[in-house]
Amino acid sequence: ANQKDNMKLAVAALLAGSAAAFAPAQQGKASTALNVNELEIGVTAPLGVYDPLGWLETEPESFERRRAVERKHGRVAMAAVVGVIVHNNHITFDGYLSPSQNLKFSDIPTGVDGIRAIPNAGLLQILFFFALVELAWMPASKYDGDYGVGYFGTNIEDPEEKARKLNVELNNGRAAMMGIIGNLVAEQLTGQTMYEQYAAGH
Fold first, then answer.
1. How far is the C-alpha of 139 from the C-alpha of 18, rounded, in Å?
2. What is the mean pLDDT of each run of 10 residues along the chain (202 residues)?
3. Are strands 103-104 and 96-98 parallel, antiparallel or unpaired?
4. Residues of 80-100 as b/e, b for ≥16 C-beta within 10 angstroms?
5. What count of other Cβ atoms lies within 10 Å of the Cβ of residue 110?
6. pLDDT at position 121, please?
7. Which pLDDT belongs to residue 117?
8. What is the Cα–Cα distance from 40 to 165, expressed in whole angstroms?
9. CA nearest 40: which of 139, 196, 171?
10. Cα 140 from chain centre
């Protein structure tokens, strides 16, 4: 029963932590002109609009693409951070990852070594799923990041609330990108997973 409660908690945490990843984004113009509101999203003091190379003026199309890539990478990183926290707390699915190899989900080690324990067929399934998401379900060519799923199934009509949630999403994504990279680097440098580092008081 405790294992099931842990799984329910993990799924709830994952849903809550990644909900912002599916928030509708501001509608951008199809032309090279950028929506001014899109430029205001993610502006954080003290830098303001951080554009040291002047790309907003010289390459507006590239800025739109870079913002879309930043948003998507942030969404993936938020899910990754939640996944690392859940797995490092030894919360796993019941059953088998690969029945033919007698490999249970609980047999997968925490940390970076976990990817090496997944059979090749499983890795291919993950790659095919990424390809499906990237090419069909949530195409990278859709720069505004609005995939029609809303925020917990609802569309945010109030512009101020929408802008606030988009700012939260973008800044949390930035923090998550730094967090997941920091976690991976720390694990490689120390040889300890996040759980082991905290347990050792590092």
1. 18
2. 52 46 39 49 78 83 84 93 92 91 92 90 94 83 73 78 86 94 93 88 80
3. antiparallel
4. bbbbbbbbbeebbeeeebeee
5. 18
6. 93
7. 93
8. 13
9. 171
10. 14
